[in-house]
Amino acid sequence: MAIEVRIPTILRSYTDGAKAVEGSGATLAELFADLDSRHAGIQERIVDKDNGSQLRRFVNVYLNDEDVRFLEGIATPLSDGDSVTILPAVAGGMR
């Protein structure tokens, strides 16, 4: 099962600069574990193991343009040909 994962600039050091990589898994959790097996350390930047292996607070993940927090979170099922986008949340600014 091939799933395209779009990588934000901040995490591209884990993927040797690649903007997108392929992975596999029946769920997002399995996909992130698969990615970590080839791109060591990336899963730790996305998943908070100290918080029940949930997505980190300031990381947004989209499955085919839908926020997975409104689906099944890290347990969201995946299908062949899906597209997953990882985006760090942006905060701050000036008054």
Describe the structure.
The chain has 95 residues and is α+β, with helices and mostly antiparallel strands. The chain has one domain: Beta-grasp domain (Ubiquitin-like (UB roll), Roll), CATH 3.10.20. Helix content is 17%, strand content 26%. A 5-stranded mixed sheet has the order 2-1-7-5-6, covered by helices on one side. A hairpin with a 2-residue loop joins strand 5 and strand 6. The longest helix is centred in the middle third of the chain and has 11 residues. Pfam families: ThiS (PF02597). This is MoaD/ThiS family protein.
Mean pLDDT: 93
Q: Give the strand tally.
A: 7
Number of structural units classed as domains: 1
The first-level CATH class is given as: Alpha Beta
Based on Cα principal axes, name the global outline. Answer: globular
Q: Find the structural class using helix and strand composition.
A: alpha+beta
CATH topology: Ubiquitin-like (UB roll)
Organism: Streptomyces sanyensis
Protein name: MoaD/ThiS family protein
Pfam families: ThiS
Sum this structure up briefly.
This protein has 95 residues and is an alpha+beta fold. It contains two helices and seven strands.
What is this structure's SSE topology?
Layout: E1 3-6, E2 20-23, H1 28-38, H2 42-46, E3 47-48, E4 54-55, E5 59-63, E6 66-67, E7 83-88
Parallel strand pairs: 1-7
Antiparallel strand pairs: 1-2, 3-4, 5-6, 5-7
